[in-house]
Specification:
With 98 residues, this protein is mostly helical. The protein contains 3 helices and no strands. The chain is elongated and about 55 Å long.
Length: 98
């Protein structure tokens, strides 16, 4: 049985509270700390939501690697890093390079 609100819902609400309610109300010298707190809450929410699937895919990908296949190794590394970026820095996971 999943209790409500879930951890991801609580973290989203915390981030919104910090960004939308507290940030405008705190003195300028404390705004950076409020932004950092909101960022951390959002990062943790993404880790809870996306992390298990990313870890599962990484295990599967690593199990299928052929050390002699350099192109396959590179593709696996790119896939793993994209999944990590989707959690840590959304938007950067879509970068295609030059």
């Amino acid at each position: 049985m999943q209790y409500r609100p879930t951890a991801t819902e609580l973290l989203t609400t915390l981030a919104e509270l910090l960004e939308e309610t507290l940030l405008p109300a705190v003195p300028p010298e404390l705004r950076h700390q409020a932004r950092v707190g909101a960022h951390l809450a959002r990062l943790l929410e993404r880790e809870l939501r996306l992390g298990p699937e990313a870890a599962r895919r990484e295990r599967e990908t690593r199990a299928q690697l052929d050390p002699a296949d350099e192109a396959g190794l590179w593709a696996a590394l790119v896939e793993i890093v994209r999944a990590d970026l989707a959690i840590a820095k959304p938007g950067y996971d879509a970068w295609e390079g030059e």
